[in-house]
Amino acid sequence: MNEISVSVPPAAAFLSVGLPLKMSFTLNEQKVTYGTTLLGWKGHAWLVCEWPLQLGHDRQIAGGTPCTVSYFHEGKLVGYRSEIRDVIISPVPLLFVAFPKAVEEMHLRKHFRVPASEPILLMQADHGGTSESVLPAGVYSGGLLQDLSESGCSVVLVRRPTWLRPGATVRMEFELPGLGHITNLTGIVKNVDARDGNEMIGIEFRFNKLEYIEYRGWGGSVRQAVEQCISQRYRGGDLLGAR
């Protein structure tokens, strides 16, 4: 169970420029959530952030509109209730939000999960073959990546081969859209579950420096690529909870 604590923030100790934020408020009688980035602040007065791109520059938001600000930082989900102070469209679209009087911190014991929908190839880790074209059919299986976290993923299978059982070591290959193609990532099958005629398996990653990624204009390790993917989807509002 996650633990929640409330604290009064000392000056700006809980903030940093470039911090990804989620803003939630009511617009046209509908609750909406947008991703933005913190650009600066004045202690105990206001925060200034980028105008959320999804809003467009023609939207009008009245000063005093109640909102909720939240962000993920150092293993905690931090949030507070506030209000929109002002909106500036020109020369640069900016959003000003009241500085918090108190913040709530949810200490997460596990990692955030984000939804995914990418084909994934699973292969027995102890198989010696190096070329997919000569792999016997019984040592690999295709599935659909269902969700992703920094520690692992869930995969949906139409039919689960017997070797994909709890405790089995597998190698994985799948795409991180916009970042690159991951190959040879090792994982341990942690659980198996049957749902709606399909089977779902939970896999825990084992980063061992043998995995690699074919980049799409981005540099870094496989672990960093997974973290980047989760951060991008968090900013976009795609979040399932904690693993």
List the helices and strands and how they pair.
Layout: E1 3-7, E2 20-27, E3 30-42, E4 46-50, E5 66-73, E6 76-88, E7 94-98, E8 103-107, E9 112-124, E10 140-148, E11 152-157, E12 169-176, E13 180-195, E14 198-206, E15 212-215, H1 222-235, E16 241-242
Antiparallel strand pairs: 1-8, 2-3, 2-5, 3-4, 4-7, 5-6, 6-7, 6-8, 9-10, 9-12, 9-16, 10-11, 11-14, 12-13, 13-14, 13-15
Describe the protein.
Strand 13 (180-195) and strand 14 form a beta hairpin. With 243 residues, this protein is mainly β. It has one helix spanning 222-235, and strands at 3-7, 20-27, 30-42, 46-50, 66-73, 76-88, 94-98, 103-107, 112-124, 140-148, 152-157, 169-176, 180-195, 198-206, 212-215, 241-242. A six-stranded antiparallel beta barrel has the order 2-3-4-7-6-5. It folds into two domains: 3-107, Electron Transport, Fmn-binding Protein, Chain A (Pnp Oxidase, Chain A, Roll), CATH 2.30.110; 112-242, Thrombin, subunit H, CATH 2.40.10.220. Helices cover 6% and strands 53% of the residues.
What Rg do the Cα atoms give?
21 Å
The CATH H-level homologous superfamily of the largest domain = predicted glycosyltransferase like domains
Pairing-aware structural class of the strands and helices?
Answer: mainly beta
Order of helices and strands: EEEEEEEEEEEEEEEHE
Summarize the amount of helix as a percent range.
under 10%
| Overall pLDDT score | 80
Instruction: Give the low-pLDDT segments.
Output: 128-133
What count of structural domains?
2
Largest sheet: 6 strands, antiparallel, barrel
CATH architecture of the largest domain: Beta Barrel
Any idea what the shape is? elongated
Please give the number of β-strands: 16
> Widest sheet: strand order?
2-3-4-7-6-5
Oligomer: single chain
Strand content: over 45%
Q: How many alpha or pi helices?
A: 1
Q: What is the CATH top level name of the largest domain? A: Mainly Beta
